[in-house]
């Protein structure tokens, strides 16, 4: 692992082809549904007391971390969701992150009928190589979990 202070890219992308139709995968890409497929999460729930115009959810991870995430955008036309972390306990070592999960139908070739899933992350400039490595691991595992959850349908 690179030493602290070495500049790293603060953007990352993980992707996978899931052997299921886009509509089956899209059904799970809603913040309150994340705990139904992402094995890192114990539960995902709406934060009570927030306004009807603000979609904030609490992710309780199995390691005890609790994060509040804000849905920034959700498009049933373009098949993506974007969310940011607005608080974390324990505190994050960086200032901010923005994640997007985007789905694309595979329309031809050997994987026709499958779904291409892309999970990106953009982190503030104070994120180090360890943060990016952890994010890569979590997204890779999350995509495997998503594929497994869809295959059980």
TrEMBL record:
Residue spans crossing the bilayer: none
Against InterPro entries, the record matches this protein to: Polyketide_cyclase/dehydratase, START-like_dom_sf
Name of a matching Pfam family: Polyketide_cyc2
| Annotated Gene3D superfamilies | 3.30.530.20
Q: What is this protein called?
A: Bet v1-like protein
Q: Which organism is it from?
A: Filobasidium floriforme
């Amino acid at each position: 692992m690179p030493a602290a202070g070495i500049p790293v890219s603060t953007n990352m992308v993980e992707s996978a082809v899931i052997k299921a139709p886009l509509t089956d995968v899209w059904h799970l890409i809603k913040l309150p549904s994340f705990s139904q497929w992402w094995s890192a999460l114990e539960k995902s729930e709406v934060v009570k007391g927030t306004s009807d115009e603000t979609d904030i959810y609490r992710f309780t991870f199995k390691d005890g971390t609790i994060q509040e995430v804000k849905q920034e955008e959700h498009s049933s036309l373009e098949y993506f969701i974007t969310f940011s972390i607005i608080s974390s306990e324990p505190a994050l070592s960086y200032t901010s992150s923005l994640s997007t999960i985007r789905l694309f139908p595979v329309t031809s070739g050997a994987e026709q009928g499958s779904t291409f899933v892309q999970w990106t992350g953009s982190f503030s400039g104070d994120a180090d190589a360890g943060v990016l490595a952890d994010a890569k691991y979590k997204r890779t595992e999350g995509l495997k979990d998503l594929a497994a959850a869809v295959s059980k349908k």
